[in-house]
């Protein structure tokens, strides 16, 4: 069933677990995620970026989600816009039936971020749609997001409180050390749990979101490189740190890079081991299975959302 994230997050905060938000681009990714959610009996957030909408096209995405809802009536599903760059994109998604939108105003100064976020909130709320906002800048590159590490900054907890009060946003993405893309850390992976704790103390009823939180699963990375990829030195957020975040007040954890690695690993493996294969179902099917396994592991072993549907 298609729902907003409000009830999802309320339960997650009460029972101390996180809900995975997985980026979708095509049918195999959607099916892999949903097969995992059904198997894990977990709520799930399917999210699309503006570049994914350009690639997959809005009507195709909407029809895929209709099929997902029809096939999984027992699973709470939210359809979410990830990193909406402007009011127009957010409005388009609200009008298209999304149950949640994110406006990313982190590139603006505080006052402009407040004003632009508030504009999105007012429109979305008038249509019964919830809004995620962002305060602080995450480094890294992913789709339309490109922030140099020198420009990244942690979220200020006091500002977070003021921001939520002034904008009326329903959830808040904060910067505590994660980053977008596959190259998140050069040394030891570390998140600022002290900032998270302070934010939760000041705005205890606001669901907190962690962007740039793929693990960059070592086994998938190794498989990609074994079969011809060149992704040296990639490093993500370890499972144990993400699990700690889910227990410490993070209600939504975004995953994109790990799905890309799973799909790429599956396809590359088939191409190298069975070069005679040219039926897309043969290699996309393997990719879909790896995506399912990756998502299922996160739901059951990392986020704690299994059996919460």
Question: What can you tell me about this protein's structure?
Answer:
- By secondary structure, this protein is α/β, with parallel strands linked by helices.
- It has one domain: Alpha-Beta Barrel (TIM Barrel), CATH 3.20.20.70.
- Helix content is 49%, strand content 17%.
- The protein contains twelve helices and eleven strands.
- The protein has an eight-stranded parallel β-barrel, surrounded by nine helices.
- Helix 9 packs parallel to helix 11.
- It is globular and about 60 Å long.
- The termini are close together.
- About 4% of the residues have low confidence.
Task: Provide the descriptors you would attach to this structure in a database record.
globular, 309 residues, 17% strand, eight-stranded parallel beta barrel, single chain, 11 strands, TIM Barrel, alpha/beta
